[in-house]
Amino acid sequence: MDIAPSPIPSRTQYVLEAVKHAILTGRLRPGQALVEAELAAQFGVSKTPVREALKTLAGRGLVVMSEYKGATVRTVDTAMAHSVYDVRLLLEPEALRRTVTAGAALETAGAALERSDAAADPAGRSLANRDFHRALYLPCGNPLLTRMLDELRDQAALVSAIAWQAVPSWEREAREHREILARALDGDADGAASALHDHIASFVQRAFPDGERHPTAPVADRE
Q: Checking CA distances to 207, which of 54, 159, 201, 215 falls within 20 to 30 Å?
């Protein structure tokens, strides 16, 4: 039986994924300029796929496009962090409740926790953390709800990346993740949803207290 080869990503997609990964793992920092010519030379492409990739990332909330300043990595402040996490609080616990009620398998979530524990650097832990949360809501049974949460993932990861640089809290969050998963595996839909709600709410409040600007955020967002 012939196996179809994996599709080769377009130049735009290649640049998009590389720049996104650099932003979400902290190699490209908030406010940093994204110069088309420099990125094109770095990736060995023309400026056109770079420009298209940056436009897409702007639509996802990771990049800010300015007529005068060009493209920059989006900065994060308290208002932005609370806006993103407020929507997560409204949607993600309910999605998990539905996942548990449906009796969906959660092996993928467990595997993500193991990868996080074994990660050698913050980038690996960050990616595993994203995978863990998605594994909880992906089987919720509502494609629209899943899509809405997927659209929040990049902005939530940007908030987390900035917060972790100033307030490392991996061990606490790992414990909370294990508690959430344990309740879900026990079939406790309400308990798992409640634990997830508390986990999300405590993280953003701890990292971005109301009324205070995060110490790594610039004085003004470049939007």
A: 54
Cα 16 from Cα 76, distance rounded (Å): 20
Q: Which amino acid is at 91?
A: L
- The β-bridge partners of 65 are 71
b vs e for 83-113, b when ≥16 Cβ sit within 10 Å of the residue's Cβ?
ebbebbbebbbbbbbbbbeeebebeebeebb
**Which of the pair, 170 or 143, is modelled with greater confidence?**
143
pLDDT at 2: 46
- pLDDT tens by residue, 78-89: 998 999 999 999
- Please state the length of the chain: 223
Helix (H) or strand (E) holding 65: strand 63-66
From residue 105, give the alpha-carbon distance in Å to each of 61, 64, 137.
Answer: 31, 38, 11
Report the alpha-carbon distance of residue 79 to residue 84 in Å, rounded: 9
Task: State the pLDDT at residue 68.
Answer: 82
- Of the candidates 138, 188, 131, the one whose C-alpha atom is nearest the C-alpha of residue 157 is 131
If phi over 0 gives left and psi between -120 and 50 gives alpha, with beta otherwise, what is residue 118? alpha
Helix, strand or coil, per DSSP, at residue 72: strand
Per the model's pLDDT, the better-predicted residue between 126 and 38 turns out to be: 38
Residue burial 192-204, b: 16+ Cβ < 10 Å; e: rest: bbbbbbebbeebb
Residue with tokens 């897409």: 56
Name the pLDDT band for 149 (thresholds 50, 70, 90).
Answer: very high
Q: Scan for tokens 């049974």, then name that residue.
A: 141
Tokens 């980038």 appear where?
Answer: 123
